[in-house]
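Convert to structure. Protein one:
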Amino acid sequence: MIHSILQILAFQILFLAVYDFFLKKETFFNLNRTYLLIAPVLGFVLPFVSLSFLQQNIPQEYIFQLPAVVIGAGTAEEVASGNTFWLPSLIDIWLFGICISALLFSWKFFKIAKLKSSGTVEIFQNFKLVLLPKTNTAFSFFNTIFLGENISEEYKSSIIAHEKIHIEQRHSLDLLFFEMVRIVFWFNPMVYLFQNRIATLHEFIADAKAVLQKDKKQYYQNLLSEVFQTEKISFINTFFNQSLIKKRIVMLQKSKSRKTAQLKYILLLPAICCMLIYTACSNDPKVEATQATSQSDSEVMTKINELAEAIMKKGTMTPEEEKALKLLTTEAQPDDKVYTSVQEYLDETKDQNEADVPFAVIEKVPTYPGCSGDNEAMKKCMSQSIAMFVNDNFNTNLGKQLELSGKQRISVQFKIDKTGKIVNVRARAAKPELETEAIRVVKLLPQMQPGEQKGEKVGVLYSLPIIFEVVE
């Protein structure tokens, strides 16, 4: 999840950089508007796009992850039933932020409604004009223009002409779109920056069209003559915003961009291609690094080279050869059986089905002794039973013996083979002693009833997180 969020931020930063460095100063306002609306959406979507022709299809093992087992935080019954103390998760924080953002959004609407009720409404053919008493406010929202009564009649016509452009162009829809995105992705600073850019662009568009109806010199004077109050609402089009006045005047004086400058928008294509290549590569299975041998001409390397040449010359391998190659390339574990020859391994595994079935599609999941019911019931029973078993058998004295403190995380993987036995147990933790203890406990699990697929017994891989809380 964190990786995806970082990718989204990186992609949106790249899109915004392209706009700021290459497109912002051009007078292709409608193209820029389209870019600013599409770019953040692409930033959200591209991290989750995975093109098959950019990836190498590598077979992956399917592992079912059991709920985390917490040791040392309470009794086994409490852990199995999930009655541990509550800590907010990332989802909880995200949902809380959405609620706060939605409340702020509602407050902004309330402020607009309050302003409308306090003013005098005049209805024209294509818009409504709300005259606000004792204020210099000037802004528009959808088809309504809000205008302060303190604004002189000389400037009202220019302001109305400007705000009518916002209404005709439906700029309020753009700003509301970003408001909705801000509510859901309130934590993403790029959404606020994109909204700021498009609000500025709206003013450029309205100015460019308004000066066609008014004298440009007089329009400048209107911009500079007074400092108006501005409602601080992110989804309205304000006429006088002090931070924007200089930019608007500079853009009004700028010559129309040449047609050839539109070629800058082609920069979007290589940017998207780079992002797609990155996501494709980052989704590839990670290959564990191995240490290079210092004696490249050793006997083992010579044999490996000879084997590689033989495989390349032959072009294909028989099932027996594939099994033998798998035995030679699989990392041995401390308690694995030692074979005196490859043939012994082939004879023992001759009748075994090597293909494990993905847990999500298996017809009948492995069953813990005493569990019954449908697949969902047996999954829940399996999780609770394993949690109870690990809590009962894990040596919690290791915390004091190793002088540990806080939470110690142990990742365990194991397989329930087609005979129901627990095999291929592996563990990873900060301390080797914790790994050894986790492997010992998991190997003590009782023999299960194996999973079934199409009437045949199959093996299923499991992942079991263990959280050992050391109570001082």
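Protein two, convert as well:
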Amino acid sequence: MKIFIAGHRGMVGSALVREARKRGGYEVLTASRDELDLLDQASVAEWLEDHEPDQVIIAAAKVGGIHANSTYPAEFIYENLAIASNLIEGSRQAGVGRVLFLGSSCIYPKMAPQPMPENCLLTSSLELTNEAYAIAKIAGLKMCQHYRAQYGLMYHSAMPTNLYGPGDNYHPENSHVIPAMIRRFHEAKERGDSDVTIWGSGTPRREFLHVDDLAEACFHLLGHDHPPDWVNLGVGEDLTILDLAKTIAKTVGFEGEIKTDPSKPDGTPRKLLDVSLLNETGWTAKIAFEDGLKGAYQDFLATLEEGTARL
């Protein structure tokens, strides 16, 4: 079985590669940016024709936290739309029988019911700070749904909650909340700071899934003959951003005060996924949050020492 994992160098893609190799039976196809520009439609179509994968997982994306999404909405909508459309249509043209498109929990409305079921999609307005990214992901999801209905292809999607784990991006402005906090608390500890200030009020609630759990869930879905058009991938539990900060500070060993900055945006008040449909397929998350955080921090320290951390 030949499987193309688009975006293999990212945190998600590298976890998918690890999972495929652990399971065995797969010839894993990958392509770096130098080898394949996913924004170039003709190049993508030609690459897929030449390499003839049986399955494609679309893990490639332009991603970032609140700051990045708010600052670069044009890049977020264009690049993610291009990646999705080029890979999905290119796969159809190349005769790829199965595509799994990875989206995000931010596709759901800002004021969606909690926990968020799959059927609340497009029922009300999105959170403005990540609207551009969400619209691009919704488009990819809908492409797979309609290609499946019209062409009879097994193209389907999975919508992960917030992810963390080895290989994350620790950029101080463009990273997601867990890696951003790991770096901030680590550097504060190293400097001997007396306090750390986090963005927003600290009251929004977030759910977090370890990237290795995500990878296992994706291959679980690929093993189903008739998976849902899209399914939420999460753990079904959440915590406040302030509690998250306290947990990360404890993991890192920072013992100072944690302050909040309500002048900074909070984003969506809560984003907890309804994972009942996922559980019905026979899969649940396995990695305990505090254990996953310890592993993520150890990976951060190891990459710092090696000089390979994504800073």
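The CA atoms of residues 66 and 129 lie 6 Å apart. The two ends are 35 Å apart (CA to CA).
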